[in-house]
Amino acid sequence: MPVLVMKFGGTSVANLDRIRRAAKRVGVEVAKGYDVIVIVSAMSGKTNELVGWVDEISPLYDAREYDAVVSSGENVTAGLMALTLQEMDVPARSWQGWQVPLITTSAHSAARIEEIPTKNINQKFAEGMKVAVVAGFQGISPEGRITTLGRGGSDTTAVAFAAAFEAERCDIYTDVDGVYTTDPRICGKARKLDKISFEEMLELASLGAKVLQTRSVELAMRYKVKLRVLSSFEEQSDEAGTLVCDEEEIMESNVVSGVAYSRDEAQMTLLSVADRPGIAATIFGALSDAGVNVDMIVQDVSEEGRTNMTFSLPVDQVKRAEKAMNDIKGVSLNYDTLQIEPDVAKVSVVGIGMRSQSGVAAKMFKVLSDEGINIKVITTSEIKISVLIDRKYMELAVQALHDAFGLDKAA
Ligand code: ADP
Ligand code: ASP
Ligand code: MG
């Protein structure tokens, strides 16, 4: 039997009615003759609640216990989905990550999938089971402890299963009907794309468009998984939603194809660092040891042997970063003060057309300056430009850039 992977995100399993609605969609695919692997997220809001509890009890938590707690939301929805399907007379069984077993690295809270043995589930399919419901987001480390794959990780579970079982397609059911030129929730003119290239989706995802987890796009690209994003709230045809595919399959595209943002960023500056070889290694080594994911970095020109080092990071890692910097102060690094700006956001424009067309950066900076938005940090790569700005201007920046690059109109 051909295998289909269907992933339902948090809003698509937010309550029993929605689980029933999702189960019906699964039933439709079973009736077409597929063996289906359903990947479920926790009910929407559940993972945030679990993370909140962990933070409250232990701000600098042990990541193994964080995983033990935050993985639990998916266990509930996996069991409920299997029961709902059984009530519909569809033979179904649930699997938690460790039961598969979905083996990951030991990098708790940001683990990577190493292996998905297909034997157990395939044997059940051979015995007549039609649907395997798998708890997304979670796995088991070589040490036998529960791990999680990072926020949004159920997308990655889904694509990894599609690759392992050589599924015909991996359908990601969510609360929007596809991938848009920018988040439709903050820009009314956002336009749904029928197709988007893996490269552009990868950039958009890594720059904050949370519709797909970055790692899921990487895996789909590497294993040539046919990946589709669509709504669980509408009746669907086989052509619905957005197909993430190779660049060659897309006939025309704008120079800029999307705008992404990441709201919850912070900026830290170490003022007056004694400049000498090795300061960057010392600072970023300490941050890395503390589990901080540094993003943008700027080092000022040195004056009289002192310099300033600025970097951005997720706002929820500020406490860890602050502690790491305080710990090395006066020990392996000399600096005057640590300045923290917790209210910044990153806005980025993405497009493979930038490879061949210049002037995109200049236009982006002009648009922001016309809106009176000050740029704090800039980074670029071949197909994207990102700026760090005050968070209060984030939505304005996204809308102005979307307009200026004509993203509401097809190429
Ligand atoms: P799920 O719970 O189904 O995994 P997510 O909340 O993780 O859903 O992702 C879907 C959300 O991603 C949408 O509700 C939308 O607000 C947001 N989003 C951000 N950028 C985009 C984009 N470019 N296209 C579509 N959705 C986007
Ligand atoms: N429940 C997890 C989260 O909210 C994983 C997911 O939904 O993809 O991040
Ligand atoms: Mg998600």
UniProtKB/TrEMBL annotation:
Reactions catalysed according to its record: L-aspartate + ATP = 4-phospho-L-aspartate + ADP
Enzyme Commission number(s) from the entry: 2.7.2.4
Enzyme class (EC, first level): transferase
CDD domains: AAK_AKii-LysC-BS, ACT_AK-LysC-DapG-like_2, ACT_AKii-LysC-BS-like_1
Superkingdom, taxonomy of origin: Bacteria
GO molecular function: aspartate kinase activity
Pathway terms, separated by semicolons: Amino-acid biosynthesis; L-lysine biosynthesis via DAP pathway; (S)-tetrahydrodipicolinate from L-aspartate: step 1/4; Amino-acid biosynthesis; L-threonine biosynthesis; L-threonine from L-aspartate: step 1/5; Amino-acid biosynthesis; L-methionine biosynthesis via de novo pathway; L-homoserine from L-aspartate: step 1/3
Domain ACT: 268-342, 349-411
Keyword set, alphabetical order: Amino-acid biosynthesis, ATP-binding, Kinase, Lysine biosynthesis, Nucleotide-binding, Transferase
PANTHER family: ASPARTATE KINASE (PTHR21499), ASPARTOKINASE (PTHR21499:SF3)
Similarity comment text for this entry: Belongs to the aspartokinase family.
NCBIfam families: asp_kin_monofn (TIGR00656), asp_kinases (TIGR00657), PRK06635.1-2 (NF005154), PRK06635.1-4 (NF005155)
Protein name as it appears in the record: Aspartokinase
